[in-house]
Every structure is written in structure tokens, then in C-alpha cells.
């Protein structure tokens, strides 16, 4: 209801096109500066207290090492394995955590019943779940998907809870006074009001799912970017370690950006509301 009204009545947000070149230039400059610092530190084998760059590969060595996997089908197998595990784990976590978060945020009885055990489980790191996951599931593939699920579940859950709690009670009361039932209130008031928290949780959950997956792959995987990175260390292919790290970073950043973009497309009223501040 509120989202539909906003989308019909509010003017489109002005596009600050003059700021885009400056923003792009600043982003490019920050990347170049980071590469320059990396090059200088590794080229001169700097020792900064307890940190040393004596054995860290240079950017040129990393670039040369990254070219070889691109020509090998083995890298595609690693990427496909990691993407499949993240896809299944993240999708399951997004569905369950969003539903539970809305229920906890809107129902006092559900909150009392479910939030305490969830709060006990939330601080447990993903690596601590790995031994239990291996015992619980019949294959290492399912255990790694479960680890990815746990990494994404709690950020999405908290985002949905905070989003549901932030819905103005006056909007809910107004909708009910106009004759809206439970389903209509959820669809027209609660979901649009909680959308910002849900989208934020989904974006954070995507990043943490990659972090947890890589941890699981390093311990119990046979294929995947995490396994590739750990294998490179064990066979002393040090430039390949950074190749794996950069792949993980780019995959995590890209997938989180896609989630944010999808969230923006699905919630245009948030951009309109933000432009009016």
C-alpha cells in the first residue's frame, strides 16, 4: 500500500550525473594506490615490525600465475563448485531467514520462543560447525553447503528482524482500519517497510557465505576456490595463493553488488524516499 502510493506520487530521484566521473576516478585511484603499495612492499622486501613481505609475491608474479589457470579447465571446475555451493546454501538461508525474521519481528510469542536459541547459535563461527557438519551429513558436499548456509543465515535473519521492527505501527493500524487482513497488511505494509533491512541483510549474508564456504573448502573440499588457495600453499605455489584470494574477493564483491542491485530494482520506493532527505 505505502510502496504503491510512493511509486505513483513521488517524483523520480534526480541523477547526479556530474558526480559519476569523479566517483569513478576516485575508485580507480584507490585501486592503483593499493597496487602501488603492494608492488613497493614486495619489490623492496619490506620488514614492518612483525610483518614481512620477503616471501609475498609481487603483482607481476601474481599476474603471471593467474594467466595459467585461465587456460586450464580445472579453474572452471573450481569456480563451478564454489558457485554451486554458495547458490544452494545462500538461497536456502535467504528464504528461511527472511521468513523467520519477519515472524520474530512482528510476533512477540514467536520472538520469545525462537530468539533465545538463535542468539546462542549466532556467535558460533563457521569453522566450529565443520566437524559437526561432517558428522551430520552423508557427504562433504552437503556439509559445505550447510556451512555456507550458516554463514548467510544470521546476517539475513537480523536484517529481516530489524526491518520488521522498524515498520511504523501507525501504518499497520491504518491499513487494518481500512479493512486490510493479515495477508494484505504483510504484503502492502510490512514487507515494503522491512525491505531496506532485508536487502541489507541479504547483501551482508552473501559476503559472509563466501567467507564461510572458503573456510569449509580449505578443510574438507576437493574442488573450489578455497581448496585451490589452500592447495597452492601446500605445494608452495605462493603467487597462486593471491590469485585464489583475489578470485574470492571479486566473486564476493560481485555477488554482493548483484544482490544490492536486485534489491534496488525490487524496492524503487526506497530510492525515492532517500532522495527526499
Automatic annotation (TrEMBL):
The keyword Membrane applies. The keyword Membrane applies. InterPro entries: MetI-like, MetI-like_sf. It comes from Cupriavidus numazuensis. It is a multi-pass membrane protein. SUPFAM superfamilies: MetI-like. This is ABC transmembrane type-1 domain-containing protein. It comes from the Bacteria. Residues 79-259 form the ABC transmembrane type-1 domain. Belongs to the binding-protein-dependent transport system permease family. Keywords: Cell membrane, Membrane, Transmembrane, Transmembrane helix, Transport. The chain crosses the membrane at residues 87-105, 117-137, 143-161, 241-259. It is found in: Cell membrane.
